[in-house]
Amino acid sequence: MSEQQGGAIDPDVIELAGRVFDLARGGYTEELTAYLDAGVPANLTNDKGDTLLILAAYHGHPDAVAALLAHGADHSRTNDRGQDPLSAAVFKQSADTVRHLLAAGADPDGGQPSARATAAFFELPAMSALLSPGDA
Length: 136
What we know:
By secondary structure, this protein is mainly α. It is 52% helix and 0% strand.
């Protein structure tokens, strides 16, 4: 059994966290949900400030995004660069992921750059339409 000294994180905990981040990144919703059900925090953050939700959104996994949101993941939480899950989903043009995040209350003008600014900068009219349905 390993001992924690001086605030060092147990290598087994680091390995587990890495596994959970890989599940979010890969869209393995069932396995990810099992870890969340077992107590892994839905807002777990890596060394870059990326949450499980940001990774699932960036990699275009709407089912994993929905599961994380159902487990209390914060859709407005940004990473160390100010990016949020909605902006990541817009950048990757994952319409279903964008819809899940908007339904959960994600702000198209949150984050830096915002989802709306991302859609405009990369000239993504379908994403802009999702973010501003009244303007389409």
